[in-house]
């Protein structure tokens, strides 16, 4: 049975690395689901054990914030704020700085993926209207969304998982993450400005290929106000109330679903069900592996060789490497069992999130921005992304490592 579990686990994580499996029309979600089904079908875990392995509070919290973000998107808030920013009468470097700050703030409160999905197409057209080269601003959007999402325990899926599993205090984590995130955002802006070298305008002053303009959704003030009020109420309860986070967020999502104008099918249609299924599938696969005792033996063997994965430095390195191999959510799931250090939670959250800027495939936010740009005739290949993503990742990871080293010495 141990051999069977190892084979299934290996195939699942090979799929996480490749983004699919040869000869099969499967993405990462399909692979995780198929892996969970295989674990149950081979009786590596029973149906009851599989159900218990799923961290339901994490899944519910993730679902609830997807509903809140859907409310903001359908209310036209993201489109409105992007158009508003693009119309500011400021220089391109200043505009980039304002964009990075606003996107980071939105990503810390709402999902970074949803922010990128909503902002990217509007941003491309806004740049075209000002005859600005869109790529620096699109890469600023992707990098800022990743860095900014690390500021809170609700900014991205892996942070939600870390916060729920390790029972991290919401305000305490935000205080720990504030310095690396703020410095990281400044470094992101500086890297892009240096790499652009003053070439902010479109070559020839024209758009690359004529495309029909993206139609921004009109701002619905009532729906936007309702969404913002609910989001603020959630944050205040997380900061000051002792109630379970998943219950608060789920109740808030229920309030938003009770609408006389926005049909629930439109709201639920914007929920990333595939991500929720990915989470549940990986919970089952990882639980089956843990039951074999193999991970515990491997950690003990590594410690005997001097590599203590439960220590901060090796854990930091493992989070960075694995996040760029299997993506940050599967990497965090693998490393959480050895996250014993008092600062392991912030370390895992910051390292796995900042690592996502290295290459396009490092985070879903990057992929969303690149795909949205391609649909508007703007090509961002891996080389163009790496010119910004690699130095941004090196800079932000270095700052984070120095900050954590300082905190541990203090």
From TrEMBL:
Its main location: membrane. The chain crosses the membrane at residues 5-24, 30-47, 59-78, 98-123, 135-154, 174-194, 227-244, 264-285, 315-336, 348-374, 386-406. Keywords: Cell membrane, Membrane, Transmembrane, Transmembrane helix, Transport. PANTHER family: TRANSPORTER ARSB-RELATED (PTHR43302:SF5). Residues 20-354 form the Citrate transporter-like domain. It is a multi-pass membrane protein. Belongs to the CitM (TC 2.A.11) transporter family. This is Anion transporter. The keyword Protein transport does not apply. It is found in: Cell membrane. The keyword Transport applies.
């Amino acid at each position: 049975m141990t051999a069977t579990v190892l084979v299934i686990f290996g195939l699942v994580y090979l799929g996480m690395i490749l983004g699919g499996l040869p000869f099969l029309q499967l993405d990462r979600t399909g692979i995780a689901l198929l892996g969970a089904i295989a674990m149950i079908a081979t009786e590596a875990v029973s149906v009851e054990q599989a159900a218990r392995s799923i961290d339901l509070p994490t899944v519910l919290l993730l679902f609830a914030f997807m509903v809140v973000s859907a409310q903001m998107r359908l209310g036209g808030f993201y489109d409105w704020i992007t158009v508003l920013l693009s119309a500011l009468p400021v220089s391109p470097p200043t505009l980039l700085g304002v964009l990075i700050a606003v996107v980071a703030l939105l990503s810390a409160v709402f999902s970074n993926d949803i922010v990128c999905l909503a902002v990217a197409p509007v941003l491309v057209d806004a740049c075209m209207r000002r005859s600005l080269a869109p790529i620096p601003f699109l890469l600023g959007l992707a990098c800022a969304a990743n860095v900014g999402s690390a500021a809170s325990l609700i900014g991205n899926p892996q942070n939600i998982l870390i916060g729920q599993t390790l029972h991290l205090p919401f305000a305490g984590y935000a205080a720990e993450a504030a310095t690396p995130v703020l410095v990281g955002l400044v470094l992101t802006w500086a890297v892009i400005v240096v790499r652009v070298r003053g070439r902010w305008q479109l070559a020839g002053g024209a758009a690359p290929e004529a495309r029909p303009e993206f139609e921004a959704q009109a701002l619905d003030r009532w729906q936007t106000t309702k969404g913002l009020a609910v989001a603020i109420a959630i944050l205040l309860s997380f900061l000051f109330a002792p109630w379970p986070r998943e219950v608060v967020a789920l109740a808030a999502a229920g309030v938003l679903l009770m609408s006389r104008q926005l049909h629930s099918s439109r709201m639920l249609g914007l929920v990333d069900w595939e991500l929720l299924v990915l989470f549940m599938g990986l919970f089952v696969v990882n639980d089956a592996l843990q039951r074999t005792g193999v991970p515990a033996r491997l950690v003990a063997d590594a410690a005997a060789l001097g590599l203590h994965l439960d220590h901060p430095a090796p854990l930091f390195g493992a989070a960075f490497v694995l996040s760029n191999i299997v993506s940050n959510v599967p990497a965090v799931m693998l490393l959480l069992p050895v996250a014993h250090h008092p600062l392991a939670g912030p370390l895992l959250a910051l390292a796995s999130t900042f690592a996502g800027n290295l290459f396009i495939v490092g985070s879903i936010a990057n992929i969303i921005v690149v795909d949205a740009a391609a649909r508007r005739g703007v090509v961002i290949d891996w080389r163009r992304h790496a010119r910004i993503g690699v130095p941004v990742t090196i800079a932000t990871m270095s700052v984070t490592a120095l900050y954590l080293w300082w905190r541990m010495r203090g």
